[in-house]
């Protein structure tokens, strides 16, 4: 390790760090699961200073595209270009895979546990997403397909209720669907008013258009705001308050000052941090009911370091 960076694995021939296609942390940040741009999932421990690979999971046949680690039940879900998804349970010192029956014929692009961790969703290049749930009698995870897109689905996010899923596509739209499954969920309430369909899985609640591929989506902690970032260097915010159909008040778009952001994370109801091709995380904050681009986090660190250096001199 040097310069504050910790090398997890080097290529045997070039001795350079391998690229990481996806990763996920466990609940307390002491372990990480990552894919070194191949069909393997490496599970490593982290003690605050260094990593130690403990397990290498090799059930997938092609590059792993997404990993999510459930905090409550300590389970990992993964999906890959091989069109498969697996749920990994830690039993007797090893990670045991259970196949999810996705019924898709294109690569799986993204996966995410629902907040209650009773379901997960998998996005795909088949212009659809699969909402998966467990069938104990067959000991596998089965799925119900949700379609309606005109191109590949690239990202998704769950509403805190675990009854609604938002998915973004390269058709430049975000679509919200009912994700309630009979026998798994209770009868879904009218979250967004009587006009928003919530009777069965796959019913489309709304469509939110944009002018670029949708790269990432997230709900605020309460679920009252949905944010998504697009390839045209914009971040969009939508009110999802209960009793009103999402998007009925319009989509608030904030143009980023730099290159497109590919990931976003809510820090609170009124603040989001985004990261992307600028290699510089940027904060977006809501003040007076309007969202705006805030400070660029690495610029602040650089200025602080220069200030401290100047004082020392």
Topology:
Blueprint: E1 22-25, E2 31-35, E3 41-46, E4 51-57, E5 64-69, E6 75-80, E7 85-91, E8 94-100, E9 108-113, E10 119-124, E11 128-135, E12 140-147, E13 153-158, E14 164-169, E15 173-178, E16 204-209, E17 214-219, E18 225-230, E19 234-239, E20 252-255, E21 261-268, E22 271-276, E23 282-287, E24 290-296, H1 297-312
Antiparallel strand pairs: 1-2, 2-3, 3-4, 5-6, 6-7, 7-8, 9-10, 10-11, 11-12, 13-14, 14-15, 15-16, 17-18, 18-19, 19-20, 21-22, 22-23, 23-24
Question: What does the model show?
Answer:
- This protein is mainly beta and 313 residues long.
- It contains one helix and 24 strands.
- The protein has one helix at 297-312, and strands spanning 22-25, 31-35, 41-46, 51-57, 64-69, 75-80, 85-91, 94-100, 108-113, 119-124, 128-135, 140-147, 153-158, 164-169, 173-178, 204-209, 214-219, 225-230, 234-239, 252-255, 261-268, 271-276, 282-287, 290-296.
- The strands form six sheets. A four-stranded antiparallel beta sheet has the order 1-2-3-4, with no helix packed on it. The chain has a four-stranded antiparallel beta sheet with strand order 5-6-7-8, with no helix packed on it. A four-stranded antiparallel beta sheet has the order 9-10-11-12, with no helix packed on it.
- Strand 6 and strand 7 (85-91) form a beta hairpin.
- The longest helix has 16 residues, at 297-312.
pLDDT averaged residue by residue: 90
- Give the amount of beta strand, in percent: over 45%
Please write the string of helix (H) and strand (E) elements: EEEEEEEEEEEEEEEEEEEEEEEEH
Helical content stands at: under 10%
The unreliable regions are: 1-5, 308-313
């Amino acid at each position: 390790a040097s310069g504050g960076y910790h090398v997890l694995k080097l290529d045997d021939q070039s001795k350079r760090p391998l690229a990481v296609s996806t990763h996920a942390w466990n609940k307390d940040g002491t372990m990480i699961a990552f894919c070194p741009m191949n069909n393997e999932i490496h599970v490593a421990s982290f003690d605050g200073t260094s990593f130690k690979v403990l397990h290498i999971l090799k059930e997938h046949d092609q590059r792993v595209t997404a990993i999510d680690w459930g905090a409550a039940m300590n389970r990992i879900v993964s999906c890959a270009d091989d069109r498969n998804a697996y749920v990994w349970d830690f039993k007797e010192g090893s990670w045991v895979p259970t196949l999810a029956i996705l019924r898709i014929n294109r690569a799986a692009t993204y996966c995410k546990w629902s907040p209650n961790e009773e379901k997960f969703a998998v996005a795909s290049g088949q212009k659809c997403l699969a909402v998966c749930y467990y069938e104990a009698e067959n000991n596998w995870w089965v799925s119900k397909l949700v379609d309606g897109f005109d191109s590949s689905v690239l990202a998704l996010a769950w509403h805190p209720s675990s009854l609604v899923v938002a998915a973004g596509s390269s058709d430049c739209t975000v679509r919200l669907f009912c994700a309630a499954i009979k026998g798994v969920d209770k009868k879904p309430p009218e979250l967004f008013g009587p006009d928003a369909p919530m009777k069965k899985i796959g019913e489309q609640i709304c469509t939110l258009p944009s002018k670029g591929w949708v790269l990432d989506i997230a709900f605020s902690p309460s679920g009252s705001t949905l944010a998504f970032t697009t390839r045209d260097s914009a971040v969009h915010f939508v009110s999802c308050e209960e009793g009103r159909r999402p998007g009925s008040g319009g989509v608030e778009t904030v143009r980023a000052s730099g290159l497109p952001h590919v990931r976003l994370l809510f820090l609170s109801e009124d603040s989001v941090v985004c990261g992307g091709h600028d290699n510089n995380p940027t904060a977006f904050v809501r003040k007076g009911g309007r969202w705006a681009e805030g400070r660029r986090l690495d610029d602040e660190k650089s200025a602080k370091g220069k200030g401290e250096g100047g004082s020392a001199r």
